[in-house]
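User: Please fill in residues for this 855-position structure.
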């Protein structure tokens, strides 16, 4: 008869046995084992779960090997809760970890990738593993890594501890495990799993809740340090130099490399090196950093005696392992038999013999996306009206930028359909709340635009009770804001997160109902990862891709005619092994981007092409022109710099709202601007100083708008509105957001604030028309550069230098600044005259508070 301990150990309960021997009274134990023995009933009997009273005799216990096990003298009855190996933790984990998993993390069973990777990691093998999104890859390396540390450390000092391991542990100070992840958010998430499983309290280096300097860890605790960019390095350095050093470091490659190169991170004690999202990390972009880090690891380790070194174990995990990875991964992994290649598919676990086999199996392994995802492709309808983004400056700027001309129309169409998608797919039946949606888009500017439009839409059309909050996440957002947005999304305070691919990999937000992509993604792997943000850990969810219905034609054709290039969606279906349900999206009735704006036509006669050429560079005019030309070139297709100017030489541009089609004003070179009524004043105020003397501005009825029109108080812009402007209040006049003029103008930036009617500065000074930006001309700034879309920053700085008397004559002549107009009394700080002319000795004190001393 073999002993209980051996049997338990064989069945996978090694670590659970030790406390058993110390029991002096009946106790309920949860032992992860399949085979138990009852007294007097030999041989052993397989138990299928449930609880079992077992009596052990002192004789049977006493036979157990190992001096550390206490011998029990009397007969004891021990109640052991038994569960079969297939249902609960079929791997030998310590009692402590088992308790954390089941009680704190609510994990009752292990997922296949976790079971399969456990033993190889424990044995110190290298692993490259692929498993679908949301199948628990993080735990599949965290669990065995911590267990391995525990097991090794439990042997510390005992005869069983391997010699080289003992020396390895004694000698140095740095982390024993290094995990690299591509994004800061993912690094934080992985680090948290280490902290949870190790039950080590605080995550070091997590500053999201204020400063968190390293505390003295409990003896034997496996502490984890988060080393991410975008936050202060100093506390990370302090944590690294602390004794004992953090056991695990999880970070992004840039910061890890930085700390290593500056000598703060000693990697000579490193035992395990993990690349989460391995394919992404080894792709161009990150691979250089990774190689540099590994070179450092080798350097550090080589300082130590050969015999003392524990072999470095490398673990690579991802949901996608493209074929190119075979060559790259071969440089990182040791050859067989020190390496295991795992592919966890729907059909089961494939132990590939080599990397080639793994990449071959990619195409044969069924759908590559997680099982619970429903895929929808929604055709985005064409714009029914001509929405002009009236209320938000960001859209203005975008639509007349180069990108805007390329993709502006598509973005407007897409944005108009998002509320439909959210309502339909992110609000599950019976669920009163808005659910969670992640919207992926290609560029940061799209993120900002979508967020702005959604915030506007939900503020306007929300029911006031279930307010839907949308926030953006991309690389230009400050780290603490990114962290709080992520936290808000996890907690359900943010309902829609609009993100670039920074959120595409690894992020685990369990209750995400909908993943929406504004364009079919560039490659299938991106699609797999983006879609994988929903339907995690066996849940269900929807992944929706917006596409252009023009592609429908080629959809149908390409199905029958192989010579037709498959569209993006067909390619995705083929390569990802899934099928899209086709739908037509609905855009919101009143365009989300604008609502319907009312227009006032404004006829400008006597325009020459040169003036018009200048006008069209200003977003405000360009937009008006665009609106005026829907029939000919389409609302966003206008290239203002060329097409419009070319055509204005011969034809009259007519507003679509005016039923004249060029005939009513046959001989006159004129432009009819359809100006949104609420910005009419700003428009005219900005327009008039730019026109040549021969030009006139008229309403469509032929009433000439006098030159000082805006000063007399236009009908559409009443005095109380002007007062609002002065008082920084917004009542939705179109040129500001809800945040109020002052703040908005600050956000807008200088150039934009200017063309909204005035100088950047105190908004009360700048009511359009009362004081314009063009006053600078009076101060001697060359007229041709004096435009509000005007001079480049460097030129502006030059001008300031000149105006404040700091520029020498040679340079000022070179730039054509008129020296006789040099104004030494002009304050570069306030843009107005200083109180009294500066003395020579005071001039140099600008910027050092000299002007204050004079006051
Ligand atoms: N054994 C388990 N039982 C229940 N839930 C689990 C188990 N293992 C992991 N999970 C949960 O599954 C979710 C997904 O896990 P994880 O983030 O590790 O997936 P992943 O495979 O790394 O996904 P991705 O490829 O997107 O990075 C997490 O919320 C995690 O808590």
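Assistant: Residues filled in for all 855 positions:
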């Amino acid at each position: 008869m073999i002993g209980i301990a051996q049997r338990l150990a064989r069945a996978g309960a090694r670590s659970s046995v030790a406390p058993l021997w110390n029991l002096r009274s009946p106790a309920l134990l949860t032992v992860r084992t399949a085979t138990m023995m009852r007294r007097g009933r030999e041989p052993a009997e397989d138990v299928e779960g449930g609880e079992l009273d077992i009596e052990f005799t002192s004789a049977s216990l006493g036979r157990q090997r190992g001096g550390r096990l206490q011998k029990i003298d009397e007969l004891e009855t021990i109640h052991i809760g038994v569960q079969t190996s297939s249902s609960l933790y079929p791997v030998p984990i310590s009692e402590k970890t088992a308790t954390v998993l089941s009680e704190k993390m609510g994990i009752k069973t292990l997922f296949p990738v976790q079971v399969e990777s456990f033993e190889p990691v424990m044995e110190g093998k290298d692993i490259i593993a692929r498993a679908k999104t949301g199948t628990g890859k993080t735990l599949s390396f965290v669990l065995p890594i911590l267990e391995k540390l525990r097991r090794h450390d439990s042997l510390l000092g005992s005869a069983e501890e391997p010699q080289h391991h003992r020396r390895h542990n004694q000698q140095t100070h740095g982390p024993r495990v290094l995990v690299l992840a591509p994004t800061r958010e993912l690094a934080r998430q992985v680090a948290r799993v280490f902290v949870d499983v190790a039950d080590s309290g605080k995550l070091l280096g997590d500053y999201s809740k204020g400063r968190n300097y390293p505390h003295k860890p409990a003896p034997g605790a496996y502490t984890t340090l988060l080393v991410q960019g975008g936050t202060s390095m100093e506390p990370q350095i302090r944590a690294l130099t602390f004794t004992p050093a953090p056991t695990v470091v999880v970070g992004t490659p840039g910061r890890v490399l930085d700390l290593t190169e500056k000598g703060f991170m000693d990697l000579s004690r490193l035992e395990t090196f993990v690349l989460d999202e391995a394919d992404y990390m080894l792709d161009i972009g990150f691979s250089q950093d990774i190689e540099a880090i590994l070179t450092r690891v080798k350097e550090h380790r080589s300082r130590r005696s050969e015999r003392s070194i524990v072999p470095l174990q490398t673990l690579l995990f991802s949901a996608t392992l493209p074929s190119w990875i075979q060559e790259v991964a071969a440089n990182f992994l040791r050859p067989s038999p020190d390496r295991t290649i795992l592919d966890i598919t729907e059909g089961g676990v494939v132990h590939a013999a080599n990397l080639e086999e793994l990449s071959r199996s990619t195409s044969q392994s069924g759908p590559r996306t997680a099982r619970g995802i429903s895929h929808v492709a929604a055709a985005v309808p064409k714009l029914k009206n001509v929405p002009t983004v009236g209320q938000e400056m960001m859209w203005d700027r975008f639509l007349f930028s180069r990108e805007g001309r390329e993709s502006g129309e598509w973005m407007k169409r897409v944005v108009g359909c998002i509320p439909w998608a959210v309502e339909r797919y992110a609000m599950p039946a019976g669920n009163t709340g808005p659910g969670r949606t992640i919207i992926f888009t290609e560029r940061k500017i799209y993120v900002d635009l979508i967020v702005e439009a959604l915030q506007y839409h939900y503020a306007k059309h929300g029911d006031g009770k279930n307010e839907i909050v949308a926030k953006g996440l991309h690389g230009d957002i400050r780290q603490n804001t990114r962290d709080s947005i992520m936290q808000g999304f996890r907690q359900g305070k943010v309902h829609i997160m609009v993100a670039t691919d920074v959120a595409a990999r690894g992020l685990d937000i369990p209750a995400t109902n909908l993943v929406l992509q504004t364009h079919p993604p560039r490659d299938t792997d991106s699609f797999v990862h983006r879609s994988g943000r929903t339907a995690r850990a066996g849940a269900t969810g929807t992944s929706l891709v917006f596409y252009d219905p023009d592609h429908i034609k080629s959809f149908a054709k390409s199905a029958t005619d192989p010579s037709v290039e498959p569209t993006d969606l067909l390619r995705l279906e083929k390569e990802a092994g899934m099928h899209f349900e086709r739908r037509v999206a609905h855009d919101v009735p009143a365009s989300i981007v604008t609502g319907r704006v009312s227009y006032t036509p404004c006829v400008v006669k006597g325009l020459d092409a040169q003036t018009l050429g200048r006008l069209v560079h200003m977003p405000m005019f360009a937009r008006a022109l665009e609106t005026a030309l829907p029939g000919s070139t389409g609302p966003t297709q206008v290239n203002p710099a060329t097409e419009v100017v070319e055509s204005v030489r011969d034809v009259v541009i007519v507003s679509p709202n005016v039923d004249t089609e060029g005939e009513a004003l046959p001989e006159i070179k004129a432009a009819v601007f359809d100006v949104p009524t609420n910005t009419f004043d700003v428009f005219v105020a900005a327009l008039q100083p730019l026109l040549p003397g021969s030009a006139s501005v008229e309403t469509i009825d032929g009433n000439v708008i006098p030159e000082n029109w805006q000063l007399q108080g236009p009908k559409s812009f009443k005095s109380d509105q002007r007062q609002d402007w002065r008082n920084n209040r917004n009542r939705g006049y179109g040129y500001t957001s809800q945040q109020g003029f002052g703040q908005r103008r600050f956000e807008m930036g200088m150039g934009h604030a200017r063309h909204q009617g005035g100088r950047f500065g105190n908004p009360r000074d700048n009511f359009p028309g009362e004081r314009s930006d063009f006053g600078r001309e009076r101060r001697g700034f060359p007229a041709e550069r004096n435009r509000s879309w005007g001079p480049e920053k460097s030129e502006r700085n030059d001008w300031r230098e000149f105006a404040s008397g700091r520029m020498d004559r040679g340079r000022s002549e070179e730039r054509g600044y008129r020296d006789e107009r040099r104004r030494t009394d002009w304050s570069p700080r306030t843009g107005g005259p200083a109180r009294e002319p500066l003395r020579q000795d005071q001039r140099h004190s600008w910027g050092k508070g000299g002007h204050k001393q004079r006051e």
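For context: The chain has a mean pLDDT of 67.
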